Each structure stands twice: as structure tokens, then as C-alpha cells.
UniProtKB/TrEMBL annotation:
<feature type="domain" description="Pyridoxamine 5'-phosphate oxidase N-terminal">
    <location>
        <begin position="7"/>
        <end position="126"/>
    </location>
</feature>
<protein>
    <submittedName>
        <fullName>Pyridoxamine 5'-phosphate oxidase family protein</fullName>
    </submittedName>
</protein>
<dbReference type="Pfam" id="PF01243">
    <property type="entry name" value="PNPOx_N"/>
</dbReference>
<dbReference type="InterPro" id="IPR052917">
    <property type="entry name" value="Stress-Dev_Protein"/>
</dbReference>
<dbReference type="InterPro" id="IPR011576">
    <property type="entry name" value="Pyridox_Oxase_N"/>
</dbReference>
<dbReference type="InterPro" id="IPR012349">
    <property type="entry name" value="Split_barrel_FMN-bd"/>
</dbReference>
């Protein structure tokens, strides 16, 4: 599969599957939680509170894994992302990603506790019914 076609399939899976299992490292062990996934192409983001354990964990070790896609239905698309996360309070990005569902946790896009985790993939594994596992790597 060509890289451009693989990128399109990964983006399609990210559009379809908005919740993923996000793993950080705590005390040398993986810690996993479900999180909403946002993306602009293969720029992948998660919204969180700056006071959470995951932010503390990422400050110590930015290594992450994110798994999404399997929903028990056929055909399935599965995306597994390995990389690092950067904690950002970029106002333009926070504004673009803001939606009213986040109001449950934050007062608005200017809430000082609202931060974005920007995922920098080292590789993305993509699986579907029609092809063998494909691996995307940045340039």
C-alpha cells in the first residue's frame, strides 16, 4: 500500500473511532485509560486537565501508546500508535479542538486547566480486513 493511501486509511479510522485506550508509563509500568481522540490528518491530540496523573506521568516519561478501532463489528479497522506526547497550552490549538462536550470538565477553551496532549507518532500500525498489517513512519 502506498504511504498516501495508508495515511488516508488511518485518518478514516481516526474519524470513525473517537475513543481510544491511551497508555502512559507510571513507575515503570503501563497505565491505561480511555480518552477522546481528536485529529487533523495524522496530527493526533487528546484533551485533558493539567492536574491529572497522566500529565505528571508524561512529564516524567513522554512515551505513549494509543489503541483504537476495534468495535466488535466486521470489517474492523485497528490503529495502534506508538510515540511521545507533548503537553501544550497552545491557545489556537485549544480553540480549534474545543467542543461543548468538554464543558463537562472545563469552563471553556480559556480554562487554565485545559491542556492538549499533542501526540508525535514514532510509528502507526494499521490493520483492516482487506490488508495485512501496515506500518506508517514519519518521513
Amino acid at each position: 500500500m502506498e504511504k498516501q493511501q495508508l495515511e488516508a486509511r488511518i485518518a478514516e479510522a481516526l474519524d470513525k473511532h473517537r475513543i481510544g485506550a491511551f497508555a502512559t508509563v507510571e513507575g515503570g509500568r503501563p497505565k491505561i485509560r480511555y480518552m477522546a481522540v481528536f485529529h487533523e490528518g495524522l496530527n493526533i491530540y487528546l484533551a485533558t486537565d493539567r492536574k491529572t496523573h497522566k500529565v505528571e506521568e508524561l512529564r516524567t516519561n513522554p512515551a505513549i501508546s494509543l489503541l483504537l478501532g476495534y468495535d466488535g463489528e466486521q470489517p474492523s479497522q485497528i490503529v495502534e500508535i506508538e510515540g511521545t506526547a507533548d503537553i501544550t497550552k497552545d491557545n489556537a490549538l485549544r480553540g480549534r479542538l474545543w467542543n461543548e462536550r468538554l464543558r463537562r470538565w472545563f469552563n471553556g477553551p480559556d480554562d487554565p486547566d485545559y491542556v492538549i496532549l499533542a501526540i508525535a507518532p514514532a510509528e502507526i500500525h494499521y490493520f483492516d480486513e482487506a490488508s495485512k498489517q501496515q506500518v506508517w513512519k514519519p518521513k
